[in-house]
Amino acid sequence: MFTQTPDTSWYMIVGYIVFITLPTLFIVSMIWRHRNLMKDEEMIKNLLEDEKK
Amino acid sequence: MSSSTPKPLQILNIVSILMFIISLGLVFFYAPREAVMGEAQRIFYYHVPSAWLSFVAFGVTLIAGIAYLRTSDHRWDRLGIASVEVGIVFAVMALLSGMLWARPIWNTWWTWDPRLTTYTILLLIYFAYLMLRQGIEDPDKRARFGSVYGIVGFISVPITYFSIYLWRTIHPAVFGRNESETKMSMEPQMLQTFIFCNIFFMVVFVTLLWHRFRLESNTARVEELRMKASNA
Predict the structure, then answer these.
(1) Rounded distance, CA B104 to CA B94, Å?
(2) Biggest CA pair distance of chain A
(3) d(CA A40, CA B196)
């Protein structure tokens, strides 16, 4: 008996949104953490310089 | 991430983006629509590589843990935590996409199937790894704890992988000892797309791991500076 292929497009679309969103969020979080680290590094270096003076 | 990004990593970034575009093209325009499951079957091309690469990631943590305990070199510890984070990203992707595939195919978002249950436990084990690590201030203690936890936690990986062979399950087996065990047959275009997506995910895994490792190295450097400043 011939059965019609079900329309499951919505699940596929949401699936690929998940596949794109999660790594993107991870990359954004790495960039954000990196920027914060650089700010901290700068601040600590300034503190150490001030102490030397 | 920064101007000092090594050349091979820059190349990996570009290759990852190119492969991502090609993989989407293959998934949506080259691979034919599966007759029984419809479009939702296309989830499989990204779902399977995310799942097995999460196993690889936790395997890297295991190796890094053993190497740290043998050498006390903190670079191994950095690799261990970097790999856990990347592994968690892949594991969450696999779990969520699996639920999205299961809804139209099994008519439920979730079932306490052995593979799903063991995979969820595995994910929780590695979430706990991240949380518990954060509670330890001393870098040496933290690294030792991370190494031992990474080694012990890896036991959950073979249990999860073999769960579909050990217990009665409705989860399809992609890799089996014979064709009847895999319960899957693929058109050549589907198989080519599947192979390409697996290679693409391997490249993405290495790229993300490398970036995360560099971030961890920077964190260690800043932490050292902070100690120096507090002692001064």
Answers:
(1) 16
(2) 88
(3) 41
Cβ proximity of B73 and B67 under 8 Å: yes
What B10-15 contacts at long range (C-beta under 8 Å, 24+ apart), as own/partner pairs, is B12/B203, B12/B206, B12/B207, B12/B210, B13/B207, B15/B203, B15/B207
Global ipTM: 0.89
Question: Residue B222's closest chain A neighbor by CA?
Answer: A41
Rg (CA), chain B: 20
Task: Centre a 10 Å sphere on the Cβ of residue B61 and count the other Cβ atoms it contains.
Answer: 31
A-proximal residues of B, 2-61, CB under 8 Å: 2, 24, 33-43, 46-47, 50
More confident residue, B181 or B223: B223
Distances (CA, A) of B89 to A24, B85, B98, B149, B174: 10, 6, 14, 19, 21
- Report how far residue B219's alpha carbon sits from residue A37's, in angstroms, rounded to the nearest whole number: 7
Q: What average pLDDT does the structure give for chain B?
A: 91
Contact at CB, B221 and A40, closer than 8 angstroms: no
Residue B90 and residue B83: Cα distance in Å, rounded?
A: 11
pLDDT digits (tens, 9 = 90+) for B24-42: 999 999 999 888 888 899 9
Q: Residue B34's beta-bridge partner residues?
A: B38
pLDDT in tens, B213-229: 999 999 999 988 888 88
- pTM of the complete model: 0.90
**What integer pLDDT is reported at residue B3 of this predicted model?**
52
